[in-house]
C-alpha cells in the first residue's frame, strides 16, 4: 500500500548507514575518534535535532570501536553513533551520505535520497516503503554481520566518565523484547524509526513511526516495512502503532497463508510429437520452479485461484531436438492475472533417424502438387516405351521371317 510514496524514514535511515559501514570498514574492532563534531548539531538550536536518542558516548572517549558504534546505531538508535561512524569512515557527513545515495541507486531505489546518517528530519532525507524493502532485503541477504547486530536484544558498552563500570543498553524494537506486549519470538530485527513531531517553514507537523522487521516461522520468511504510522494516539499519548501493525500482520499472515509450489523444475507438463527422430514423442518439462503465497483454505482446492495455462510453440517438432530447447510456455494464472510464465523445455535430446528421415522425405514428395502430373507423365513414357519396343520387336520378327524365306528360296534354286 502506497509502496512508492515518499515518506520521511526517520531512524530506519540507519539501515543504510549500517550497510555502508559494514561494506567499507576493513576492521570493525578498530578504534574510532569521538569528537564534538559528532554531537554539536544536537545542541545548536535546531528543534529537529534536539532531544535525540543517544548511547551516552562522550567526546574524547578513546575506547570505542566501529563495532560498538554499530550496535549503538541499530539497538538504541543512537544518533551520535551515526555521526561518529560517518566522520571516521569518510571524513565528513557529506562524503558519507554520497556513499549512502550511491548505494541506494545501485540497489535500484528510485524514490530515495539521504541527507544525513541518522534520520533526523530534514526535507531532503526521504524514501519509500518499496525502496526501504530493497535496502533491507539487500542487507538481510548480502551484508555479513548485519542481522547479527540488528537482532541483538542488549549490548554492553565500555566505560566512560559518566559510566565508569561500563553499561548495558537495550533494543528499541518492541517485537524482539520479551517484556513487550508486542513480542513475537519468531521476529528478528531490523530497525525502528520515530519522530514525535517535526518543524519546517510552514509550522509544526505531527510525528510518525517507521519499522522494518523480518519473521521466520514454519519454513517461511517475511520482511515487513511500514512507514508513517502515528506517533500519538487520539488521547495525545505515545503509542507503538508500528509495532502493533507488525504484530497483527505477522500473526494474520502465518495463520491465513501458505506458500504453495505451483510448478517445480523438471516437472513433466506435456508431450509433443517428433518427426524424423529416433523416438516419436518427447516430454516437455518446466524449466524453473514457481511458488506463490495463497490463502491456506484454498491450498487444497484443485480448482482454486492458481491455474496453469499451457501454450505450445509447435504442434510437432522435427529431429534433432536438443535437451533444454524451449518448445512451449506455461502461464501461472492467479485469480485471472498472469503472475509468472515458465518455459517448457525438452526433457532430453533426440537424434535424427536416417531411415525415418528418408521415409518422411519420400512421403513429403508424394504430397507435392506436381507429383501426380509427373507420375502420370512417367507412366505415359513407360507405356509409350513398351508400345515402341513391342512394335520394334514385331518388325524384327517380320524382318527375320522374310530373310529366312529368301534364304530358303535361294537354297532351293541351287
Explain what you see.
By secondary structure, the chain is an alpha+beta fold. Helix content is 34%, strand content 25%. It contains nine helices and 13 strands. A hairpin with a 2-residue loop joins strand 4 and strand 5. The longest helix is centred in the last third of the chain and has 43 residues. The mean pLDDT is 93.
Arrangement of strands in the largest sheet: 10-12-13-8-7-11
Flag low-confidence runs.
none
Number of helices: 9
Radius of gyration: 41 Å
Report on the biggest sheet.
6 strands, mixed
Write down the overall mean pLDDT: 93
What share of residues is helical? 25-40%
Structural classification: alpha+beta
Strand elements, count: 13
First-to-last CA distance: 131 Å
Task: Please trace the helix and strand order, writing H or E for each element.
Answer: HHHHHHEEEEEHEEEEEEEEHH
- Which range does the strand content fall in? 25-35%
Shape verdict: rod-shaped
Amino acid at each position: 500500500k502506497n509502496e512508492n510514496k515518499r515518506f520521511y524514514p526517520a531512524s530506519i535511515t540507519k539501515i543504510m548507514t549500517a550497510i555502508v559501514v559494514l561494506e567499507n570498514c576493513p576492521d570493525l574492532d578498530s578504534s574510532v575518534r569521538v569528537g564534538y563534531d559528532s554531537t554539536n548539531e544536537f545542541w545548536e538550536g535546531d528543534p529537529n535535532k534536539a532531544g535525540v536518542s543517544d548511547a551516552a558516548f562522550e567526546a574524547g572517549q578513546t575506547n570505542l570501536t566501529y563495532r560498538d558504534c554499530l550496535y549503538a546505531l541499530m539497538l538504541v538508535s543512537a544518533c551520535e553513533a551515526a555521526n561518529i561512524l560517518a566522520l571516521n569512515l569518510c571524513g565528513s557527513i557529506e562524503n558519507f551520505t554520497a556513499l549512502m545515495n550511491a548505494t541506494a541507486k545501485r540497489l535500484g531505489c528510485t524514490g530515495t535520497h539521504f541527507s544525513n546518517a541518522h534520520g533526523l528530519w530534514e526535507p531532503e532525507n526521504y524514501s519509500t516503503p518499496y525502496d526501504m524493502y530493497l535496502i533491507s532485503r539487500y542487507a538481510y541477504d548480502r551484508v555479513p554481520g548485519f542481522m547479527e547486530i540488528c537482532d541483538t536484544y542488549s549490548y554492553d558498552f565500555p566505560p566512560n566518565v559518566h559510566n565508569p563500570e561500563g553499561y548495558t543498553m537495550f533494543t528499541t524494537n518492541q517485537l524482539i523484547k520479551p517484556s513487550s506486549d508486542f513480542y513475537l519470538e519468531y521476529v528478528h530485527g531490523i530497525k525502528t524509526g520515530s519522530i514525535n513531531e517535526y518543524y519546517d517553514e510552514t509550522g509544526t507537523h505531527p510525528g510518525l513511526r517507521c519499522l522494518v522487521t523480518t519473521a521466520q516461522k514454519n519454513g517461511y520468511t517475511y520482511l515487513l516495512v511500514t512507514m508513517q504510522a502515528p506517533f500519538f494516539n487520539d488521547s495525545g499519548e505515545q503509542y507503538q502503532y508500528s509495532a502493533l501493525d507488525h504484530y497483527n500482520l505477522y500473526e494474520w499472515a502465518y495463520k491465513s497463508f501458505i506458500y504453495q509450489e505451483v510448478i517445480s523444475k523438471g516437472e513433466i507438463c506435456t508431450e509433443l510429437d517428433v518427426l524424423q527422430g529416433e523416438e516419436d514423442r518427447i516430454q516437455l518439462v518446466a524449466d524453473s520452479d514457481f511458488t506463490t503465497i495463497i490463502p491456506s483454505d484454498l491450498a487444497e482446492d484443485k480448482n482454486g485461484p492458481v491455474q496453469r495455462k499451457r501454450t505450445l510453440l509447435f504442434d510437432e517438432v522435427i529431429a534433432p531436438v536438443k535437451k533444454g530447447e524451449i518448445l512451449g510456455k506455461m502461464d501461472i494464472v492467479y485469480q485471472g492475472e498472469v503472475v509468472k510464465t515458465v518455459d517448457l523445455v525438452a526433457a532430453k535430446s533426440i537424434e535424427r533417424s536416417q531411415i525415418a528421415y528418408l521415409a518422411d522425405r519420400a512421403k513429403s514428395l508424394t504430397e507435392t502438387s506436381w507429383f501426380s502430373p509427373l507420375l502420370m507423365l512417367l507412366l505415359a513414357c513407360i507405356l509409350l516405351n513398351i508400345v515402341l519396343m513391342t512394335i520394334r520387336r514385331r518388325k524384327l520378327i517380320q524382318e527375320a521371317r522374310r530373310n529366312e524365306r529368301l534364304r530358303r528360296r535361294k537354297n532351293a534354286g541351287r
